[in-house]
Design goal:
The chain is built from 7 helices and 13 strands. The chain is α+β, with helices and mostly antiparallel strands and 271 residues long.
């Protein structure tokens, strides 16, 4: 393939006020093609034994769930603030759906009712992230309920009252303002997507903004990576001198016998 040099890729992910920096090994070919640590070709270039490649792929498969949660958290941080809401809503027995499709239909109808109220008040269209949790047994669907993050504008009563049919409440509903902790909405998102006994499925509105992702293959060299590790991965001074206008939060270093050094750093934007 004509690899001319190995390098490191810096991947910067901006999600609202939260910034993540991922520094991972990469190759650049003579034709300028970039091959990253998460590409299958990367393993071929490292001359890794086939049985070891299979171990890495299995490990990557297990890491998929973590990446899925990360993406959910990033989208939440990119779209919502303390002015917005989280809603948890369940069903009374007489309204409990018999299928996942039925539950999704009821959730869509709830969103339509909220959107109708928003339009009457001249507000922008609803923006939401919806998680449906459910279990299944021989009798069918059970313990189905929903969690939703949505934009503000309506009152809590207006949102709660929308979980109804013919003015009758369909079940328990709780609405509260989003609260950002030291890690933003991470704890809430992990709760919404925690590994359940049953299953979970999430969907979102089409107007959700995606995190901003930028890559750079020239900022980090092997020497620079070794220097930052030698000085201490948690050196606030070093990280903030490298990334101006960002507050250092945390950093993590992973060494992999097959892939090399991987560094993950978390920042918050300076206001």
């Amino acid at each position: 393939m004509g690899v001319i040099r190995s390098t490191y890729r810096e991947k910067r992910i901006v999600s609202g006020n939260f910034v993540e920096i991922e520094i991972t090994p990469a190759f650049i070919t003579k034709r300028g093609k970039k091959i990253n640590v998460d590409d299958n070709e990367f393993l071929d270039l490292k001359n890794i034994k086939e049985e070891d490649k299979e171990k890495i792929r299995k490990k990557n498969k297990k890491a998929y769930e973590k990446r899925r949660k990360k993406e959910f958290i990033r989208i939440a941080h990119s779209n919502f603030t303390e002015k917005d809401y989280v809603v948890h809503f369940t069903y009374k027995n007489e309204y409990r759906p018999n299928s996942l499709e039925g539950a999704e239909k009821e959730a869509r109808n709830y969103i339509r009712r909220i959107n109708y109220k928003r339009k009457k008040k001249g507000l922008e269209e609803i923006k939401y992230m919806l998680v449906t949790e459910f279990g299944q047994d021989e009798k069918g669907l059970n313990n189905v309920h929903h969690h939703m993050i949505l934009n503000g504008g309506l009152t809590r009563d207006e949102i709660e009252d929308s979980w109804s049919k013919r003015k009758n409440s369909m079940g328990y509903v709780n609405v509260r303002r989003l609260q950002f902790g030291d890690n933003g909405l991470t704890d809430l998102c992990n709760y919404m997507l925690k590994k359940p006994e049953g299953k979970r499925k999430w969907s979102g509105s089409k107007n959700l903004k995606k995190p901003i992702v930028r890559t750079n293959y020239y900022k980090w060299s092997r020497r620079k990576v070794k220097n930052i590790l030698r000085n201490g991965i948690d050196s606030k001074l070093d990280w903030e001198s490298l990334y101006k206008n960002l507050y250092f939060k945390s950093a993590k270093h992973i060494y992999n016998d097959w892939l090399g050094d991987l560094i993950y750093v978390n920042f918050i934007k300076k206001e």
